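TEACHING EXERCISE
Course module: macromolecular assemblies
Task: Read the component lines below, then compare them to the predicted structure of the full complex.
Student: A.B.
Group: 4
Components provided:
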Amino acid sequence: MLEVRDLECRYGSVAALKSVSLSVEKGQIVALIGANGAGKSTMLRSLSGLLVPSRGSIMFDGEDIARCSPPQVLKRGITHCPEGRHVFPDMSVEENLDMGAYLRRDMAGIAADRAQIFEQFPRLAERRKQIAGTLSGGEQQMLAIGRALMSRPKLVLFDEPSLGLAPNIVERVFEIIAQIRADGATVLMVEQNAYAALEMCDYAYLLESGVIATSGKGADLIDNPHVQAAYLGG
Amino acid sequence: MSEFLQHIANTLILGGTYALLGIGLTLIFGIMRVVNFTHGELYTFGAYFVFLISSVLGLNFLLALPVAIIAGLVLGALIELLLLRPMRGADIDTTMLVMIGAMIVMQNSEQLVWGGVAKSVSTPFPETPLVIGPVSVSYLRVFVLVMALLLIAATYVLINRTKLGKAMRATFQDRDTAALMGVNVRAIYTATFAIGSSLAAAAGALLGPAYVISPHMGDIASLKAFAIVILGGLGNITGAAIGGFILALAEELGAGYVSSGYRDAMGFLIIIAVLLIKPTGLFARAERIG
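Instructor-supplied answer key:
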């Protein structure tokens, strides 16, 4: 479904990604783990069009999207749920969800999806008129996820979905991600909580200093001595 | 007392137009982070458009306002596409210099086309004023106030109720995330600059016929717009609307009870006072628009 080849991405003279290749199959959950500054967020930002890679290709459903703008990428079915939630702070919960459906024209479908998200996240339904900036961190993360789903994505990119959340909320976020896959979408997630990510994913890539250091099934990476020493605390 | 009521009536009429001027400028700054030095020239442009339509071409005066608004939209979009879009990502100082250059070119073009002599516009409204108790206002000025209020209301609806307005607010609050939602941020910038410009042109088209029109009328209008925006808090539309009326009140009372020579100085006194006491503006709510 997604095939990244030799991707290079630079900030000025610094290459944040050096020749990264990875692939995601339809229906999988794929995890991208690594330390801070390894290039994980850069990877997602270049997939969603916020950054233009200096070299390489990003094939999605047989089409190179490496030079597409964010709206063009979204139109093809990839949504990006950014790190730090980034809800629109001065908009209501409802308006945030509507922004997720910005490119859609099917009013009935949008209303049905919104109702479904409210059913899935009752906290958001209770607060539908509330300004998003006043929600708790966990509620904001639910809103960010709901907003991403409003575009009816084929592939969801999650950037650090568990960052800064209370442990019980973290568990809930991972349940939701599993549910998104069960509902038929594909997931690529960047996660600093390496153990949780490796446990739930089908396949994982380890990014170190802008290159893929190793990759494999989640369970295999958990057993990998290098991964254990560097990312799983032992 | 009757003198005071007259000042209040004048304040309302002047304030509506000032509010339009301020909303246009604050919208552009809030969403694009561009300090728009051409704002006053767009005001002049709107005023000359009314002169062109009603005095030169002899068409209906009432037609002039909508035509000036559309012309302001087009000119604003052109400025954005030709001057600002290539400058995106450049330093704010560089962009400011470009806008100052554009202002000089626009002002001199007005002078070249229309000459330096001030022009007045004849209107279809009766010469005798409307008298309500102790207050007397010309029918033209009542028209100016009603139109200004309608345009302010239209801007509110646009920002708060339409899909374009929602995309503008999203871009203001978080540009990258708005792009991830599918918002074409470059198109939002063009639309924002065009709308802000058309509000300035509308203000000129309304207030121009109430005074005389000259190529340099934009200088003081620009300064007043900046005073209003600083008063209301940068990027705050409600603040700019209220700021417009506060500036008008200060000018009216200053001119009425201090000296008419100090009318235009009031704006600067307000800027100084606000910057000393509350530099984020009277109505600053951290960072927001709407």
